[in-house]
Amino acid sequence: MAEPAWRRELNRLFASVKDDQEAEALLGELLTPAEYAEFARRWQIIKLLMQKKTQRVIQNELSVSIATVTRGSRALQQGHGAFEKFYKRLYK
Is there a smaller number of Cβ atoms within 10 Å at the N or the C end of the chain? Predict the structure, then answer.
C-alpha cells in the first residue's frame, strides 16, 4: 500500500529542519506542551535502554510506569534500526 501523501509531507517537513532552534520552534508549535514532553520522554526511554539501563532504573529515573518503559523496549526490539541509527548519530 502506498504511503499517504500527508505522511510523506510530514516526513519532508521534519527533514527540512536545519538546526536545533528550528526543530524546537517547529515542535513547539506543532505539539502541545504535554505532547512535546511525552515525545521527549519517549526518546529518553529509548536512549536509556540503549545505554543498557534496566527497566526499573529507567522507571525510577524518569518517573514513568514500567508499562511505558516496556512499550519503549518493545519498540526498540521490534523496530528496523532507526533508533540505533539516530542514537549513534547523536552520541557517538
Answer: N
